[in-house]
Amino acid sequence: MNSNANRRKSQGIALLILGVVLLGIGLMAFIGVQSDLKKYEAEGTRDFNQLTEAELSGKPYVEGRVEFVFEVFAEEYTTNYGIRLSDDSDKLYYLIPLVTEEGYIDYFVTLEATERYYETLNQIYEETWDESLPAVYTELYLDDAKIRSLPSSIERILYDWCETGEFYQNGSFVDWCVASDFFGTTDSAEIVSHVLPYMIVPDSKPGGSALIGLVMAGIGLALLVVAVVLLNKAKNVPAAPNEAFASEAPAEEFSTPEAAPSNAAPSRTNFCPQCGAPLEPGAKFCPSCGAKVEGMHR
Question: For the whole prediction, is pTM greater than 0.85?
Fold first, then answer.
């Protein structure tokens, strides 16, 4: 196999692997969205403030008002080789309470927010802690959100922040709950148990990602076709002359050379007329019987 065939084979294998991956991811995304759509159509949305811990674990589609913001405990930002590119945050993670209709707070969850929500949420944060601000509070209403489990990295940050982070007068969130008797206990483990490992993700109504899944699956299928073509071409490329088997050399033909023409007359053997013995040219007597043969033979 020559270099062109090797190159086509390598490209074909690479495209084959990439095509399978994209096709698989695309199909899984599409199937997942279809499942979410069925769930969304069957259950609709529920007020996240009214859900129990067990109901939150079902990761339903939700809606509701964000009335209080306690803190931003984590952020995501873009880096290049470990260096932050700007002061802008790609995402901020806010700790918010779930407020029942009776005005009680039993649980805290995380709100994952992008830039479009920063201004409103920061205003709610200021109003949550500044008693000098007007009594009419800013609210954020979310109508197409979904409950998701916290990513493990964010979950670790959250629970570490709850017990050791700076929250109130240089104390942690747990310290503040103990000092304010917020949950009626000084047991840090019990206090932390009210901070649930779930987050509200706005703009999560199912449907948009279905198209993305189909596009990915289509690209993957196209790559598979190209990969098959390249592999077939690599298989059928003729071998280069220096790599081909040497053909047998044509057999040399030999022939008996023609006898050179001669002007000499063919020799003739003479015999003795008496005894029949052969005679030498020019002999006068037979060497066998002694008869005189001169002039008799020709």
Answer: no
